[in-house]
């Protein structure tokens, strides 16, 4: 009974095992082993032996059937050998992102044959069509494992790889450090020149590895590294993953010369002393196959002696990692010297030294570089005595040179690639001490780059050999003109007929706590016109002049200067055009910046021209280059107690380059009341500032120094402090928009506010009720407000029903200073000419219409005859009869419309002859 149960159980287990086996995929073993008996060869997949397929019943005619394959290929090299594996064909199922069906695993860091690969570091998994990069084992063993569940049995499917066993000598960089993996000491006593390879170069380097190379030379030696190939995984700007770090010294605490990753070409590095430490660190970044690096090194005492080159100067430093590149930095207005290597002895061959010269640059500092050579003897193949060539462009330097880069583009080219360097100046040979080729050379900004290079050495047995130069850092205010005083003083003189000057560093912000003085100097008999192209100073408003610009007239008497302040400008007020005072041929402009802010500053233009012959002219005149001079002296009389000051051509557009001055004088004890009747002058004026760039009105002693714009309310009634007042009008000499101008009334008044009013009680005088101004009685009811000052007072224009009232314009033109007889005659001439031209034009138009009508009638008659004759032959070309043109009899002829327009805008009412000032035509002759 028990036997029966046992037999039944065995049969059940056997049946179940067969059933399970029929549903489970068969796993085939196809391991291969290669050792030093076969130092090179080829491995392929598929590579199933025929007998293995037959014994397992594999039917290659059924490609859809899937099998489990796991093939382990083991490579064991001999002592002091490594395994090199290179794939020349690779086509497996899957892709680089999905290696589930078929893939190859590479284990290149296996320490021994018996090591479990599951405990070894995986060097990479590959599938699809991208073959693994060249692989070199870290030691003498390498294993690769193929896993396949693919049904793909095409002829091209699989892989093919070549293997070989290579010597490991080149990977042993030096003396291994006991107890540390991949750490070596390279001593110059063993070899002066050598090559260092990354641990598995050119194969993909292992992950999570640290290698250290300590290079030690004799005292006085320096070390040169030259990377002929460099491929380290690039993980970011600061190389956070894989990198090579080079220390300028024997320990990790030494200064870092460079930390590098990515792809580099022909990278060259020099130590500053006789030792270097190199760290090669790898992590496990995203999938990539970087190959590492190959580096040539050299220990030598022939490299440039840095201590001798620097000469212990402050501000002169060696650029770490280079053979002899030098950085010269200003310590504020300092002077330094630089020289060629070994100066005054012969410089070395095949040496390139770059001198990067930096002046101060910042919000408060801006310097320029001045380079002057003490001597140059940079010899080429021709060692005959040299003379200065006609120009710098004629200098050819085939074997040694000194190049100076001043332009920004050339400086970048020199610092990026010496092979493609372009210099602004190239010098060589032995240059005489009095040659202008020795300089000075001045930078365009705060920086300059100079380079010394030699491909060969020539010695003419005369010392010194090479070059020596002096570098001066001077404050660069960015101002044209003749510099005065020391280099850090912002003082400039201008004597040319035209020119410009600007705030320091314009158009950049000017520095704080700065004072600059500009001297515009003309000869006697000259005057100076000043106007501004740009003006923006720091400050909230004119009442807080933190930064300001003072404009002075300079008078010289008995050899002594007297400065008279014309105006002070600050904040964002835009100065109007200005002319030096009569008798002054020099202006001085002083710019001062405070410590609380900065702005773009200003740019001013000046012109030194022939001086006017009178302080206040006696009429109008045109002077050279289209400039226009006008104005007059107006003396109030019993018959002329008031009047008007109007701009030239008012109310038509004024012109550019206009300078007008009016002087109004009234009786002793009286004052002048000024009121703006109309203003249309380009610019902008607010309640607390004015920007009168192109045209300006100035009133002597007024609460505001300049007036412009179109708002009359900003010009408050002004009462002169004395019996005289001066008004000026100027426009810029370059271009103006040309608006209508202005109309300013003046009145002779006596201010009796708080005084005895009885002096104004007579029939010839009138006392204003509220302002307490005493005016001439003739000014009552003249259409002008002659009483308004300080308060609203129009009592002189009230109760005028019983008075003979004169209109505003009749009163206006009783005493117009600018409406001279010359203007009236000119206006009448224009009117007559316009009427005459209009009549001629109208006659021509009528004649033309008559001739046109006559010709049209003839053409119509001829056409009718032609239409009747050819009507049957040309039925579709019949022309409609042309009707007689109709003319609008109400249309005004062009001459009439022009005359009406001119009459509306340009004709001035007549001016009484007794109110017109005398004109002198010979004033500018």
TrEMBL record:
Xref: Pfam families: CUB
Domain (CUB): give its ranges: 30-166, 182-300, 324-474, 490-609, 630-749
Q: What segments bear the compositional bias annotation Basic residues?
A: 861-874
Question: Transmembrane as a keyword?
Answer: yes
Membrane-crossing ranges are 830-852
Per the database entry, which stretches of residues form a coiled coil? none
UniProt superkingdom? Eukaryota
UniProt keyword annotations, A-Z: Disulfide bond, Membrane, Signal, Transmembrane, Transmembrane helix
PANTHER family named among the record's database cross-references? CUB DOMAIN-CONTAINING PROTEIN, CUBILIN
Name assigned to this protein: CUB domain-containing protein
